[in-house]
Amino acid sequence: MPSFLALCAFVLMVFGGYGAVNQPVQEPAWPDVIPGFAFSPYQKDQNPQNNVLPTREDIIRDLARLQGKTRAIRTYTVEGVFGDIPELANTYGINVALGAWIGPDAVSNAREIDRLVSISRSAPHNIVRMLVGNEALLRTDVSVHQLTAYLDTVRALTDIPVSTAEPWHVWLQNPELAAHVDYIAVHLLPFWEGVEMDKAVDYALNTLHQVQARFPDKRVVVSEVGWPSQGRTIQQAVASQANQAIFLRRFIHRAQAEGVVFYVMEAFDQPWKRTIEGAVGAHWGVLDADRNPKFEMRNPIIAVPHWKMLAGVSVGVALLITLFLLTDARALTTAGRSFLMFNAFSASTLVVFILYEFSQQYHTWTSVAVSALMLLGVLGIVVVVLAEAHEWAEALWVAGRQRLLGKPLPRETATASSALPFVSIHVPAYEEPPELLKATLNALARLDYPQFEVLVIDNNTRNEATWKPVQAHCMSLDSSDHRFRFFHVNPLAGYKAGALNLALDHTDARAEVVAVIDADYQVASNWLRDLMPAFSNPSIAIVQAPQDYRDASDSAFKALCYAEYKGFFHVGMVTRNERNAIIQHGTMTLVRRSVLDDVGGWGTHTVTEDAELGLRIFEAGHEATYIDHSYGQGLMPDTFLDYKKQRHRWAYGAMQIVRAHAAALLGFQKTGLTAGQRYHFLAGWLPWMADGLNLLFTGLAVIWSVLMLINPLAFNAPPLLISVVPFLFFVFKLVKLLTLYTTRVGTTLGQALAATLAGLSLSYTIGHATLSGLLLGRAIAFARTPKTGQRARWRQALAAARGESICALALLSLQVLLLARLGLQAQENLAWCGVLLLQSVPCVAAVVVSLLSARAEGLVDEKAESLV
């Protein structure tokens, strides 16, 4: 019942939220007839830049739509069919303010003027004004001297009032222009000046009054006034359908009261203007490109007229997501269920509204392709957020763990040696320092367990001085029952998996369980005695203890690494264990020998043979359990480069597994995998896949930003809502990590932030690995992670983060260049620069962590000790 009430509350929240921001706003009614419209009869698929022009039939249909709604129209050119507009408009009782286009080409200008004068002298006589040029001075296509010469020429040849159309400030800056016109034709477009819509009408009329006061002897006609319904934001000016309706209805009411002659900008949307004014240029029409009204003319204005439908779709999608997230959610508390519902409803509302906004735009093939990529990116982020939210809920809000966790107690029969299974411990080694491996073997010799053997498989180590001392040490530890055995094989194919398969060939026939530890791990004496009881359940094939490390206090770099590792072992593995879906991660793992043989041993086609084996065991229908208690400690990488190589191998190997087991993971192949196991394997690797997509996005963002610098009108910044999504995702991930680290892992806030820094530093590497693994999937060499190596010097540290440094420099440089080129006017541009800054954070983190790895031991962070 509490969950149902929470669900109802979220449904009401969506409808209430939509309703609250879509309250009807009553404004003055649009009059039956207005003085004039700016008239460009281009249809949706027409473009003068491609010489695809309206036909007479197109113009006739458009004029018929305006009949009875306006007394006049203003045009911009007399070239071609546009010169027929006065004749065609007369049929519908519409007057014309006839315009001639003036540009930088003197020959074209002369041709326009000649035809302008010719048309003005011909019947019908419905031309009430003439306009020589439209914003020609604003564009600096001609000088004031050139323009006045054109004006004087036309005025000498006609009795019809002549002017040129310019924004209000151009008239005030060039007052000498007034002597060459019969009236002042002024543009009032406060949107371009970044004026807030609520203040825009007052601003427009105040500027009109300034022009009237400056030229008291001239009549002032507003040749363009309007507001766009879509497009970028400029300072406080927001382009929206509601703002367009409110501005125009208010302005018309005020202008008519003052007796102002005006032409609304414009009659019909002009999608072709995207290329010269950006996306906003396509949306100035009162009617859309399909000639449908865009807003209410008399009834109250609603910001999103279809909000009830959008709310309903949002709720429907949210219910489907909730149903999926709450599948097998018996252990979740009401708080956990409510948290998942909140994320489902928030995500669905965001996606539905973004899709709605996308549907309101005019698109070219290029914009469709770019928008589709952006939408896919948003959907990808949403999927990752929902998967992360699911893990968050199951880590924080559970009534109790149902499967084996924590340090188990030995079973009663464990005191009898004969009741304990024989264990074969395999230690693969390659180029390991002899003293390191000796310490590992000494720890194994101290095991409080009666029946075990240790097989050291040294594969492909070339230097006898490296492996001979280990061989001798095994002989010194050996007893009459040959407990410690050493094998040196060179050459041996298959890397670590090949060594482990060789060990299987030499495993004692009495062995019921195979254990694997890495060469640097020193196990606790009670490791086997504590974990063997789990195998009393015949369904259990894997018993896994977490990896742990003993060198976290060696340096600030290793303190960061240690903090970052802990999240997976104490959060991710714990939640996965509840659905029998843990990742087998090699060291500190115990595998039932018979199952290992049945599934064909260790796989050599992937560089993460441990995780791949675990998946095959699950596919065979067996179970695994995770003991959230440390029974051994190893060593972490000494340099950032080694840290990157290790994570590259993990991520690349995971993608090899996805490729090889895709049919089973997606349910297309019948195996023993449960739905929960398939979910956790795919959801667990989703963040890594997201890093791959983010790397692609970063590359596209760089390309798009360069195009914005080259042609900012044709290549606009993405919509504000799209740019906000990465910020929300970053904040979500940060809050999740800090919350779970401090509450479930038990770190301090500083340690949680350290883990965040370390994790961010690997984003570039993981992204590269996942893309390579998914797209290529070819076999690569097993990259051993060196331990007890030399600390990186400063130059080496910088080289280790060379790619990230270049990426950060490119992103930060583009941000500065965009701000310098485009200024601070448009919120979309600022948001996009923020996205570039956000994309640079992982790259900067990589440089910082790499430099930390070069610090001398004497500069170790005092907090490092507390991480152990």
From TrEMBL:
The chain crosses the membrane at residues 307-326, 338-356, 362-387, 650-668, 688-708, 720-741, 753-776, 797-817, 829-854. It is an enzyme of class 2 (transferase). PROSITE patterns: GLYCOSYL_HYDROL_F17 (PS00587). InterPro entries: GH, Glyco_hydro_17, Glycosyltr_2/OpgH_subfam, Nucleotide-diphossugar_trans. It is found in: Membrane. Residues 1-20 form the signal peptide. Keywords: Glycosyltransferase, Hydrolase, Membrane, Signal, Transferase, Transmembrane, Transmembrane helix. The keyword Transmembrane applies. It is a multi-pass membrane protein. GO terms for molecular function: glycosyltransferase activity. Its EC number is 2.4.-.-. It comes from the Bacteria. This is Glycosyltransferase. It comes from Limnobacter humi.
